[in-house]
Amino acid sequence: MKRFLAGESVDSICISSKHSRSWFYKWATRYSSDNPDWSEEKSRRPQTIHTHTPFEIEQIIKMTRLDLYNKGHFCGAQAIRWEMEDLGVRQLPSLRTINRILNKYELTHRRTGRYEPKGKKYPTLHGISVNHVHQSDFMGPCYLHGPNRFYSLNTVDLATGRCAVEPIIDRDAQSTINAFWAIWRRLGLPVHQQVDNEMVFYGSPTHPRGMGCLIRLCLHYGIELWFIPKGEPWRNGVVEKFNDHYRQKFLDRVEMVNTKSLREQSKLFEKEHNRRYRYSKLQGRTPLEELNMSNKTLRFPVEDQAPSHPLKKPTNGKYNLVRFIRNDGKLDIFGEKFPVPPETFYEYVVATIDVKEQKLKIFLDKRQVDEIKYQLF
Fold first, then answer.
1. Alpha-carbon gap, residue 136 to 30, rounded angstroms
2. Contact at 8 Å (CB) between 345 and 326?
3. DSSP 119-132
4. Are residues 196 and 336 in the same domain?
5. How far is CA 27 from the centre of its chain?
6. Do residues 358 and 218 both lie within one domain?
7. What is the pLDDT of residues 220-254, one digit of tens each?
8. Tens-place pLDDT, residues 160-211
9. What is the rounded distance in angstroms from the CA atom of residue 90 to the CA atom of residue 84?
10. Residue 245 is part of which domain span?
11. DSSP string of 44-113?
């Protein structure tokens, strides 16, 4: 720059320094007599990164992960990507990008610790005999090798510890009916069936009185269905603990490459668990040993084939929802709100829907405290 300011030509300077004219003009543009650091090298990082993940996508990944985590579902990168696809997100990030964003926001922790009870009396269902109470829960989405996902409907008989695992590809109404039917064909029909608040179990929040596929299936076969409180998966604690066992002893160990091997290995795992797994609550006996000692006659579905969806509207029976009433004094029945007596505030109530009488009966500690007309559609 001193030579240029002294009047020497650009060509002469470039030839003697063995640099191009563009190189010279770059530094000529940066030259500043007022800034002594004008000749320092600047970062070559581009000011605009076209491949940078948009902020909106990062927020969707964060919220999806938290939602899956709070529901007790798989919340890894693949599960998040599938959920984003179901939400209709067009710009789907790669698994590597999702993992990078989870690490960035420190969303890689696992749930630890045990549930501490609040001291409120809870209407627990106890398995007093074989098939008196079944707890069921969907496990998943789980994954085979590659982007092939599946769900497993896991069921445990509380009295004997017998399990049944039924893998399905889609969690629609007919697949759910088929899965419960296959489980009942192996375990027998329960007196009480307890589940969480999966939408496929109760139907749709748009039509809360329409009686979803599982409600109708249970009513048609004389099974009393129970829904645990929303956001409290530990109320299904036996099957939730079994899910951990299923994950550690089956998903993490058994290699499955297609749906055929998945079904074969699932049945083998179920058979081995019921034949060999020993429970301390059973004084060291296996589930099948406990079943044989009971001399209980089991009740099974008569038909081999599961009924087709949609099932006819039942005219008899009842189903129940356990709900915690907060200070707003509202009982939530699949999105529909009903006022309840003040004595139920901050207590667990059982909302029993009597199909024949078309009434909603509210019980507090086995005592009926209210009754509401409830017309089913």
1. 71
2. yes
3. S---------STTS
4. yes
5. 59
6. yes
7. 999 999 999 988 888 999 999 999 888 888 888 88
8. 999 999 999 888 999 999 999 999 999 999 999 999 999 999 988 888 999 9
9. 9
10. 119-377
11. ---S--TTSPPHHHHHHHHHHHHHHHHTTS--SHHHHHHHHHHTT-SSPPPHHHHHHHHHHTT------S
**What is the reported pTM?**
0.69
> Phi then psi for 24, rounded to 5 degrees?
-60, -45
- 90 and 231 part of one domain: no
Domain check: are 75 and 188 in the same one?
no
Structure tokens at 295: 């001399």
Residue 231 has what DSSP assignment?
A: T
Tell me whether residue 43 is in a domain: no
CB atoms within 10 A of CB 160: 26
Question: In angstroms, how far is CA 199 from the centroid of its own chain?
Answer: 11
* Distance of alpha carbon 137 from alpha carbon 126, whole angstroms: 17
Instruction: Indicate if 289 and 149 belong to the same structural domain.
Output: yes
Query: Do 203 and 68 share a domain, yes or no?
Result: no
Q: Which of 323, 340, 332 is nearest to 205 (CA)?
A: 332
* Amino acid residing at 96: R
Q: Which residues of 324-352 are buried (b: 16+ CB within 10 A; e: fewer)?
A: bbeeeeebbbbeeebebeeebeebbbbbb
DSSP designation for 236: G
What would the two tokens of residue 184 be?
A: 């009942």
d(CA 80, CA 92): 10
Pick the closest to residue 182 from 207, 153, 211 (CA basis).
153
| Other residues' Cβ atoms within 10 Å of the Cβ of residue 239 | 23
Give CA separation, 283 vs 132, 161, 278, in Å. 20, 12, 8
CATH of the domain at 263: 3.30.420.10
Question: Considering its fold, how many domains does the chain have in total?
Answer: 2
Residues 326, 177 within the same domain: yes
Contact 232, 120 (CB under 8 A): no
